[in-house]
Amino acid sequence: MQIEKYLERIKYDGPATACFELLEQLQQQHLLHIPFENLDIHWKIPIELNTDKIFDKIVNNRRGGFCYELNSLFHALLVSIGFEAKMISARVYNSSTKEFGREYDHLAIIVRLEENEYLVDVGFGEFSFSPLRLVPDEIQRDKRGKFRITNQNKEALLVSKASGDEWMPEYVFSLRERRLSEFEEMCRYHQFSPESHFTSKRVCSVLTNSGNRRITISDNKLKFTDINGTKEIEISDETEFDQLLWKYFEIKTKLLGHSL
Length: 260
Prior knowledge:
Blueprint: H1 3-9, H2 20-33, E1 36-37, H3 39-42, H4 51-60, H5 67-81, E2 84-94, E3 99-100, E4 106-113, E5 116-120, E6 132-133, E7 139-142, E8 145-151, E9 157-163, E10 166-173, H6 184-192, H7 197-200, E11 203-208, E12 213-218, E13 221-226, E14 229-234, H8 238-249
Antiparallel strand pairs: 1-11, 2-3, 2-4, 2-10, 4-5, 5-6, 7-8, 8-9, 9-10, 11-12, 12-13, 13-14
Helix pairs in contact: 4-5
């Protein structure tokens, strides 16, 4: 792991000694500078769960990715720095079907610091800005909303986000450590299955303004979301789509030889 190049990618130039303050800063810098995006799926470029290839894509080629890429690479960074971190499997809640997805539906991270454990996630799109303490029923507030972790059963925990007066499930997860290779089948599913929401539409999203604003391209719409709500702008054609990818995410489709 080329730590210095990774830290440059997320624009972090401070001390790199494992502690909560560093963990929080790294997560926030990651969310502010590396987009959540599924463009390779729509460009028909296979995504391989190989850390070196993911590093080359995200750090050297200054791209983004989805959970299997973003969180696995961030996990490798944390371990290289000296954090006690492990990858875990999560099952994402589908608000339409009211069901949770399959095992390995999502890859997240658990970090242990002294007597505390934290849920760390830089690959879920709209989620918490800071690590979440694994303390059951504690309401945790940050710039992206209010979150709560509850015991689902003896083996699983549920993370939820407040929506008005209700708590909406995000995903359910266990604390069992997983290997990156265990996510390969679901990674292929999300790349190629017509049932996966990743194949149904292209998306690229990143936080800006110290975490107070989110910019998203979702198919033919550009969205700006902050405390005042969401402003949507229609994207007229593919040329404008390419221009917006460069303007807001510094992704050059023409340079890569892709024409969406």
